[in-house]
Design a protein that fits this description.
The structure is a homotetramer of 288-residue chains. With 288 residues, chain A is α/β, with parallel strands linked by helices. Chain A has one domain: 3-Layer(aba) Sandwich (Rossmann fold), CATH 3.40.50. Chain A contains 11 helices and 9 strands. In chain A, a hairpin with a 2-residue loop joins strand 1 and strand 2. In chain A, helix 3 crosses helix 10. Chain A starts with 8 loop residues before the first helix and ends with a helix. At the A-B interface, helix 5, strand 5, helix 6 and helix 7 of A face helix 5, strand 5, helix 6 and helix 7 of B. Strand 9 of chain B pairs antiparallel with strand 9 of chain D.
């Protein structure tokens, strides 16, 4: 039984193998590692129910990009933007008519939870322009809309309910949901990006289970992109941290700056994926 | 023809009377003024099509609260909170079972447009709590939820579409929409609050006309509350300001601070109206 | 040897007694506890070198105010403002001619380190007004100025150097320095306020030792006021956290909101102390 | 008599020539224009007392960079960074041992006044590192420190006093002061950068005259860099705007975003000038 909380499939896999000490392979879990320069890409595929149980995650593909020098190196930043774009294209068919809805999850007033809303503010939003002036735009500009639905504690409404109601009004062909994650390993804070095709559980990040947002519940492919910004205090605590201390979190002192850089990377990865004729430089002209 | 842009019925009325110089009354417009201390309350009722044409506003009641020392006086702030609460009660029947959806309009990243989103962040949101623990709450606590839908420039979606889709999911009994307004008189910036029962035109504040949000289009009473935060540059310009200068605005240097105080006043007026057993002091304990 | 890091004398005292298990009193340390309602005031006086060594703190008086419901209760907030004001008066003679310089320490861009700069932004600053219109102000309005010198990582200048150079220009009669602290007990985050007459070590909070700011080095009384906003990750970690993880911190999810409330409490405590004829209500009219 | 308020020498020159309608040259003022692509550089030299009187500015060199597409074009942004760096080098001898103090003027809580503080937060600050590890750094890395002294309204201290006291402690070889400016022409908001070797009048931007910060008063060269972010409401008003409305300002709706881009341009221009071995790309890796 894994009792360390992590939103990363790659960590769940490591922990799961550690438990079953004499086992090197888990039935229903396939994992491959690629290295390119200082960037490591790990692909974990969960293929059956046993794999789901072992890792505590839904069936599907989880791609983890570990880039330890993302904070410091512009070169790494540019490469990671490209990798994110490529991985989105592997998971979804995106052509000229694809309408994508990006959902920025989390609470913008709590810094380590603000990744999703920050990403949304850095996207090149075009749906309202495309509709009225489709002939001006080149064919490689996608149709993109976005919402930041807030959290139920500040809206009084289940986040999934807001998202589903907007989906039914907008009828997107693809959904990309972005959220802050919890990791087990402090080295991963803000250096790791996970992309999966399994959708998300809004609110799962804070310990609640609610209706998921995935292909089954929405009828459209849901790609989830997340970056670890906190580790659970209980993960590193010497003693059991009492329940009422749940809001406690461990994060880095430079979290405000780090969220900014991570959000820019994820946003521009998405911008590149959806606006296929634009270069990273083009995209940066628009969104800074 | 009025060509000074104002969102305030009271100003539209003054301008309209000024034009028709020899007329003291306009058919279809009834106006009354009350003074209490340094606070002036003006009620403008537009009762027929002629009144609508003359003032360029929809039929209904417009209450304007002018409080020149709102910025400086806690006493005025407390009185205005109470007046806002009373006026909301005059416009809508609110009882124990009323579910209210508050909509905070505008762009949170543009300070003078951030009034609506700022108000929403200061509300006591209870719908998600009421449902699960209705027996703990006293009867005077209302059921309140809220959204800040953003603006179409940053979401790619018509704001009215997002709001309507949430309305159809949440089924509120009452909607209160809060937005920043433009005024003609610079003395009114942040000292004036307008409350009306006519709903709103999302995006009207920036010169566009889109589907309105009102009792006719939503099936529920829509109370609109607004505070002037800008005056159109064209209103004070010596020369015609060219079209492409439209994003220009005139506002006060202390607008960041002023929005904070106005938002607090409007938010706590709404909190008092919807949570009828709470005092202003109670409310401030929760929302600061 | 205490190896748990805490900036609170009251915690250093507890830890020190725990170590010397059979000892109930430490030579050179006097401690008294008062309770008023839900607020506990603990006074720790370090009177000689042995006490300094045992607690790892400079000689002087340390007053700790523990107020577990400060976040929720307006009544507690008001009482704590009054206690802060009273304690400042016990430590310093403040009369009509006292010029006070408040120094807000820390990095405003790192939320849990922003307490000092946030307090400074909520003070009623009068020095520049008093000088030019001393006859308008009543005798109970103090002369107050303030600086937020930043941190050496973002200025390239020792913080103590900036402060000392301003002191020599302004010649204050009293200095009040405000900073975020580290505590050992997670229950103290944002519920505790420490006031001492021993001055401060700028940068001490992040593990560096630099020239102190105290009566000896400045020639004026230096009152230090601090609120714990983080606990060291190493304090709760199961395993030794490696050196390079030093920037890791443990804090609460609602730290943005909590800093706001703590800063308001400390600021208005100082405002009450320095502007002796103003009530809390007067002060709140000016600074929100 | 010029009664339109502008901080730009180039505008003062134009207005001055317009007044003296039959005159094409003013004694004591020399002006040259260069164009490179879409960027215009205007150099106004004020060489004698008559020039000072005519333009209402101190003797010295004023370089104005007009770049209408700075907001949209990365290419323009990169060119302007380079031009700023070059102009700084023309005004000051900068070698390996030059210690530069950058002063970010203005009030960070008022968006259009926050340019200076925003620039300071984007600088590569090295003085505290250079001192302790001079042998690691290459010879082309300058020694840079910076302060954001605030405004007298929030500190109670004359800004010039804070700056002078830090100067006497740090003993810089060069001072670069950055501030938001007022322009007369709305087209210049955020598209224009003025660089001069005449120092600044802190607070001049808000209509007050105080002790200047220049080579005469400080003993070191003071380069002033400014960007217009507002135009005086009185400049465009149909009627005389009353004195008490002075805090009114005209600015653009997207001022928050525009300040960000302008600040980045100025900051990286300064970074390039002071750290001579670094490319723009290097600099962006550090400061985002």
């Amino acid at each position: 039984m894994i009792n360390v909380r992590t939103d990363l499939a790659v960590e769940a896999h490591e922990l799961s193998k550690k438990e079953a000490a004499d086992v090197t392979e888990i039935d229903g879990v396939i994992s491959r590692v690629e290295e390119t320069g200082r960037i490591t890409i790990t692909r974990v595929d969960i293929t059956n129910e046993n794999g789901e149980r072992a890792l505590g995650k839904a069936r599907g593909s989880y791609v983890t990009i570990d880039a330890p020098d993302l904070k410091y190196s512009l070169e790494t930043y540019e490469k990671v933007c490209k990798i994110i774009s490529d991985e989105i294209h592997k998971m979804a068919d995106i052509d000229n008519d694809t309408l994508t809805l990006v959902v920025g999850l989390g609470n913008r007033d709590i810094t380590p939870d603000a990744l999703g809303t920050s990403v949304v503010s850095k996207l090149l939003i075009t749906r309202h322009l495309k509709e009225s002036m489709s002939n001006i735009f080149g064919s490689g500009i996608g149709s993109v809309c976005a919402i930041a639905p807030g959290v139920s504690g500040t809206t009084g409404i289940e986040t999934a309910d807001i998202i589903k109601s907007v989906i039914s009004r907008v009828s997107p062909d693809l959904i990309i949901a972005v959220d802050a994650l919890a990791a087990a390993d402090i080295e991963r804070i803000s250096n790791t990006i996970q992309i999966s095709d399994t959708g998300i559980q809004p609110g799962a990040g804070v310990g609640n289970n609610r209706d998921g947002l995935n292909e089954k519940t929405t009828g459209v492919k849901v790609i989830a992109i997340g970056v670890p910004t906190v580790i659970d205090a209980s993960t590193i605590s010497k003693t059991e941290i009492p329940k009422e201390m749940a809001p406690l979190m461990v994060t880095t002192k430079d979290i405000d700056l780090v969220i900014e850089r991570s959000a820019k990377t994820v946003a521009n990865g998405i911008n590149l994926a959806l606006h296929r004729d634009m270069s990273l430089r083009d995209v940066e002209s628009f969104v800074g």
